[in-house]
Amino acid sequence: MKSKKLVVRVTEFEKKQLQEEADRRGMTYSELLRSFIARLPLPCILCAKFLPGDETLDSGALLQKI
User: Half-sphere exposure (CA, 13 Å, Cβ side) for 63?
Assistant: First the structure.
């Protein structure tokens, strides 16, 4: 798995909230952020069919392609 750099902007208050939540769960700040990211839904596999370079599809063509 490749590591990618992710930049997230948070206020000082939000950072304090995240740190308090990490402390409450007994994990580091980074582990907490990774756990939140891990809960995000998986990317849509069907959406990969419509990457740039594919013809523009209307809703009818979209249903036919699926």
Answer: 2
